Amino acid sequence: MSKSEITIKNLQVSYGNIKAVKGLNFSFKSGEITTLIGSNGAGKTSTLKAVMGLLPSTGEILLNQKNINTLRVSDRLKQKITLCPEGRGIFPNLTVLDNLMIGAYQNSNKKEILNLIEQQFVLFPKLAERKSQMAGTLSGGEQQMLAIGRALMIKPDFLMLDEPSLGLAPVIIEQIFDKFLQLKKQGLGLLLVEQNAILALEISDRAYVLETGEIKLSGTGQELLNDSRVQEAYLS
Ligand SMILES: Nc1ncnc2c1ncn2[C@@H]1O[C@H](COP(=O)(O)OP(=O)(O)OP(=O)(O)O)[C@@H](O)[C@H]1O
Ligand SMILES: [Mg+2]
What we know:
The protein has 236 residues and is of the alpha/beta class. Helices cover 39% and strands 26% of the residues. The chain contains 10 helices and 10 strands. It has a 6-stranded mixed beta sheet with strand order 6-7-8-3-9-10, with helices on both faces. Strands 2-1-4-5 form a 4-stranded antiparallel beta sheet, covered by helices on one side. The longest helix has 16 residues, at 170-185. The termini are far apart. It binds adenosine-5'-triphosphate (ATP) and magnesium ion.
């Protein structure tokens, strides 16, 4: 598979008069894990939503040099970009299976959908065991697995994840991060937003530190782990 890349140029997001994202420049690639860290209110969620097209933004979002910032969300999904949102956004009163099917709503090929569901069950065997259970009755970790599985139902090239470790026990977080490494090996490009900075940086190829809507530092995951400024602000 050839390498695909999303390049963000001068991305700005405003809420009324408030500028939440102030001209970001960064990129992420297929087959890599890229992480955005930063404190509360730094603009991480706003950035992911803007890349997905859920929020209006100015600046360029280039998919292999082609600007996609005029496309609707549904068309960005067709370009194989997806977002696993903060708070997971699963449908609690639908079964695991139905939640997965919803992820494939743009696909009318039933055989392919069944095949994709099978793939998610291989990735997360817990979901197979609980396929007929209402999603709202799953444990937090299982709900996060379902949210990721649902996002993967479009066979994305790029998966953005907003705080996937939020509220989960360390052992579950490690399991889920292991899956991210597995997905990366399969060629997926992951853009991860995390408060859990140490673990996220450990698995990251590239990382950016966001502060009040601007990128303050960037480097490989290892470089940022070793950076005293990062250690003071995020790792203590
Ligand atoms: N709908 C909104 N209306 C007005 N301001 C908003 C809205 N959504 C976010 N903001 C503001 O934009 C800024 C960035 O918010 P954002 O949610 O992107 O931050 P974040 O880095 O994801 O924070 P957190 O770590 O708490 O999730 C914050 O100051 C926030 O108050
Ligand atoms: Mg957020």
